[in-house]
# Entry
Amino acid sequence: MYDKYELVAGLEIHARLKTQTKLFCSCSNDTFSKEANSLICPICAGFPGALPVLNKEALSMAIKTGLALKCDVKKFSKFDRKSYFYPDLPSGFQISQYDEPICEGGELEVYVGEEKKTFQFNRIHMENDAGKLTHENHSSLVDLNRAGSPLIEMVTEPCFRSSEDVFEFLKELQRTLRFLGTSDADMEKGMMRCDANISIRLKGAVEFGTKVEIKNMNSFNNIKKALDYEFVRQVKAVEKGEKLIQETRGWVDDKEITVSQRSKEESADYRYFPEPDLPPVILDNAELDAYKKEVPELSAQKRTRFINDFKLPFKHASTLSWERELAEFFEEVVKISNNPQKAANLILGDYLALQKEQEVNISAANLAKIIKLMDEGKISSKIAKEILPEISKSDLDPEKYVEEKGLIQMSDTGELETVCQEVMSENPKMVEDFKGGKEKAIGGLVGQVMKKTQGKASPPMVNDILRKLMS
# Structure
C-alpha cells in the first residue's frame, strides 16, 4: 500500500550564527560550557525598557549565507515581534522577521548518491534564540545564556520526496555554512536545529495532504528515521480511513517514534507586528557587491572543480571537499607537487588514517616533498607510509629524514639483479609457475625482493629485472 503514496516534506532549519556577540546586545555569544545565566544583560533577559541594537556582524553573515544559497537579498527588510509564551523567553516575544525577510528564494544543489538534485528555499530570516530549559528532579531550570543568540531560519519549499533527499540536503547545507564560516552548524550542540513538515499524497496528485510538523530531532540520522516513521504512520492512518490533523509532533529518540504534542499554530496566533525599537535594514547596490566578494568558493564548487581539473573520482573529490581546511590543504599540496592523483591518494589514505591515531603536524610543503620523493623513485609507497608518522610529529623535512635514516631506494641495477637472483634461487616454484604462464607469480617474487631490501627497492625496477632474468 505504501507504493501508492509519496512523501512531501519541507524543512525549517535554524542555524546559530558564529558571531562574537548576541543579536541585539553586546553579551558574548560564546555560551557553551559557561556557568548558567552568566552571560546575560537587561536586553537578552527581557527587562522592560531595554532597547535592542542590531549586530552588524550577524547581518553580514545572514547576507553572505543568502548569497551563497542563491537567494534574492532584499534591499529593504524589517524586524517583527512574534508573541508567544515560553518559560525560557522572558520578554514574552521573539524578535523575528515576518513579511519582509532579509532573503527570499534560493536553492542548493545536492548529490543524492551520484545524482544531482536541486532543492529550493522559500526564505531566510533572522531572529534571536530563546534560552535553555533543563528538567531534573521534578523541576525545570532556566538558563538564559543562549537567549538573544543570533539565528537564521532557512525555510525550504515542500520539495523533498524522500528521507534520503533530506539527509543529503542537510549534510550539504551544513558543509556550506561551515565553508562560509557563518555557523559551526553542530547539531549535537544545538547550533543547527531542524523541524520537518511532512504530508503524504497519492502519487500523481497535485494537492498536498494534511501537514504535520516534527520537532526535537538532534541528528541527521534521527531526522531520516522520523520522516520514515511518520510516512508509514500517515499512510496507515489514511488507509484505515482516519482523518489526519495538522499538529506538532515530537521525536522520541529511545523509542524511535513520533508523539503528538499540540495543535499547530497559525501565523495569526503569534500576533506579529513591526518591532518598534528597531529601524528597517536598508542596503544599497555597493554594499551588496561588497558582500558578494566575501563569499568563498563552496564545498560543492570545489568538488566539481576537483573532478574537472584534477580528474578525481566523484567519491575522492567529495571527501576532499568535505571540510574547508582539508580542501585547502589538498590544493596546496597539489600546487607544490603538481601531482593531484598521488596527493589525493596519500591524503585520503595514510594521512587521514594517521589523524585518527595521533596529532598530525605536517605542512603541505613537506607532504608534497614525500610525493616528490616517490615520483623521483627515491622512496616507495611503503617507505612513505612508514615515515609519515615520524615526520608528522614535528613537521620534519622528508628529504633530510630519508637520507639520514638510509631509506633512499636502491637504484643500482647490478645490486638489484644480485638480490633478484637470490630470491629466484630460494623460490624455484614461483619461477616455475611464472614460466608456466602464471602471471601472478611474479608478484610473490617482487614481494620477497622488497622484504630482502627492507622496502628500499623500486617495485617497477624489480619487476623489470625479474622478467628479464626469467626470460
Summary: DSSP finds 15 helices and 17 strands in the chain.
